[in-house]
Every structure is written in C-alpha cells, then in structure tokens.
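wait is this the right file?? whatever heres the structure
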C-alpha cells in the first residue's frame, strides 16, 4: 500500500510503502487526528517509522500500490 503524507510548509510529500491494509492505515490516521495534540506514526514495509506531528498534517493519501508496466508502445 502506498501512503503519501503532505506536511504543512514542506515542499515535498512523504511517501512510504506499507504492508498494512487501507482500513488499518485510515484507522491509525483517524485515531491520531481525534486527539489533535499527538503524532501520526506509520511504519513502512522495511520497518522504518515515520512520525509526523498531527497539527502539521496537510493530507494523507492512501492508494493501492501500482506495479510498473512492462512492454513497448509504438509511436506514430
């Protein structure tokens, strides 16, 4: 699962690959936002942890992992 996290005043988003389901990630984000004073903590597929202060979150995008396409296209 690909997760993109937008952070206020940061020029680039954080991107991580997670083995968790979209529902589990959404529940973790919802729980962090409910408190409002804590942090959002997610772990990627390699065990690295990303921690972002909730008050600095701009958005969290949860998307299915896209596989690279193989093959060739003919240009005209």
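ok assuming it is, sequence goes like this
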């Amino acid at each position: 699962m690909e997760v993109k996290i937008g952070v206020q005043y940061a020029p680039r988003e954080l991107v991580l690959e997670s083995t968790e389901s979209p529902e589990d990630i959404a529940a973790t984000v919802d729980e962090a936002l409910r408190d409002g004073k804590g942090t959002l903590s997610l772990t990627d597929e390699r065990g690295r942890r990303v921690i972002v202060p909730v008050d600095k979150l701009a958005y969290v995008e949860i998307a299915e992992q896209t596989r690279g396409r193989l093959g060739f296209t003919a240009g005209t």
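The chain has one domain: 2-63. so i think its the right one actually
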